[in-house]
Design a protein that fits this description.
Strand order of the largest sheet: 2-4-5-7-6
Shape: globular
Strand content: 25-35%
Largest sheet: 5 strands, mixed
Structural class: alpha+beta
Helix content: 25-40%
């Protein structure tokens, strides 16, 4: 909780020190899924990844890991399959259609976000469910941290949600201008 509050304070003050570099997207995605595997299995949720092994992204490693972990943790937390069924949480990564970045998509078939909450859900301390109605609790900081980290990269966070059907979060992180950095080496 304290670390989340400090991260949010740094983000809001413009003092979160992002140090982007070229990263293979597959690595932080697989690490986040591995961290959540036991929790997901206990909750009867299948974790699915569709990430090209050679897809590179220009991002801060720590920030990208936090973005993925926050989104995937929420997706697992709010996916509650009926008895005898399984839920699904997926993460997909692809080069943006215009070639100017990478799009990451986290999809669940969970409880969804009510329309009246969708505008507020990215604000600090706002939750779809209160700590009293969910066994996992939470502070309501994860999505506001995700938004701040994505915007700190010059990216964009959007989402669509339907109550009872699930939520899809999309993150677009840009490729920097060529004069800002060298392109990644093939096979890096």
């Amino acid at each position: 909780l304290i670390a989340d509050i400090l991260d949010l304070a740094k983000i809001e003050a413009g003092r979160y020190d992002l140090q982007p570099g070229w990263l293979r997207v597959e690595t932080p995605v697989q690490e986040a899924l591995a961290l959540l595997a036991a929790r997901a299995e206990k909750a009867r949720i299948d974790l699915v990844a569709k990430v090209p092994s050679d897809l590179m992204i220009y991002a801060d490693d720590r920030a990208l890991r936090q973005i993925l972990l926050n989104l995937l943790t929420n997706a697992v937390k709010f996916t509650r399959p009926e008895v005898g069924e399984r839920g699904t949480v997926s993460v997909k990564a692809a080069a943006a259609s215009d070639g100017r970045g990478v799009t990451l998509t986290v999809r669940d078939n969970g409880i969804g976000i009510p329309p009246e909450m969708q505008e507020a859900i990215l604000q600090p301390f706002v939750q779809v469910e209160s700590a009293q109605t969910t066994t996992d609790g939470g502070t309501g900081l994860g999505l506001s941290i995700v938004r701040g980290l994505v915007e700190g990269h010059g990216g964009r966070l959007t989402f669509e949600s339907e109550v009872g059907a699930g939520t899809v979060f999309r993150i677009w992180l840009p490729t920097p201008p060529t004069e800002a950095t060298q392109d990644p080496a093939p096979g890096a």
